[in-house]
Amino acid sequence: MVRAYVGGAAPWRLPWRRVGTFSPIGGGRVITANVIYRVFRLRIGDTTGTGFAIEAGGREYLVTARHIAEPVDRKDTIHLFENGDWRALGVSLVGHAPRDIDISVLAASTRLTPERSLPLPATSEGLIYGQDAFFLGFPHGLSDLVLGDTGRPVPLVKRATVSSLQGEPFLLDGHNNPGFSGGPVVFQIPGSREFRVAAVIQGYRPAREPIYLDDGTETDLYLRGNTGIIFAYNISAAVELAESNPIGLALLA
């Protein structure tokens, strides 16, 4: 059983494979433990965001957005949020994705995921134009639930529509917020309950929106609006980095 705590209240006791039951996403689907236990709130330098674990070649890697992990060079220390505070974690740089692909891959000095098998295929194969997808992270550092004895916060989950798969980045229709950067985009192949991680959240397309007075007069001021168009980069770039520099922590078979 997995315990989730809400403030100082008594814990809810949730079946291991249905950790996401407290956060239904419609259609009888829930975000399952193999997704939730891989998502971390992290801090690199003065920047906070989201990261998540994948496996490649029997080794574990931490994936996040390059604009968060850019300061990491070879061996470094980042921080994960646990038990209400930031815990230092030694990492090695696996690589930053080339060109404008906003993905970085790190290798942690200790295992990030539970030792029991909770596989999550890192592939966008099967992702269909127009289908639902879900993205997880820690917008504005928000999270009221704790993953039992791990001390780690449960990520928030949001739904999006896959709007475009042409080239890079993928475009999703949803409402992203600061803090989701580096988080995973997961989906299910129609007719399957298995989740896959397809992409890494970069951010959203902003819109310059004028500010008006109460009488309708337009001012010289503008606000930075959210168009609801989300940019996400294919997880294949992370897998390629991991396979080309296989220094992740080896997992026992």
Question: What secondary-structure arrangement, pairings included, does this model have?
Answer:
Layout: E1 2-6, E2 12-14, H1 33-36, E3 39-44, E4 47-56, E5 59-64, H2 66-69, E6 75-82, E7 85-96, E8 104-108, E9 132-137, E10 145-147, E11 156-164, E12 170-173, E13 184-188, E14 195-212, E15 218-234, H3 236-244, E16 249-250
List keywords for this structure.
Thrombin, subunit H; six-stranded antiparallel beta barrel; disordered N terminus; 253 residues
How would you describe this protein?
With 253 residues, the chain is mostly beta strands. The protein has one domain (2-250): Thrombin, subunit H (Beta Barrel), CATH 2.40.10.120. 7% of the residues lie in helices and 47% in strands. A six-stranded antiparallel beta barrel has the order 3-4-5-8-7-6. A six-stranded antiparallel beta barrel has the order 9-11-12-15-14-13. It has a three-stranded antiparallel β-sheet with strand order 2-1-10, with no helix packed on it. The radius of gyration is 18 Å and the shape is globular. The two termini are 24 Å apart.
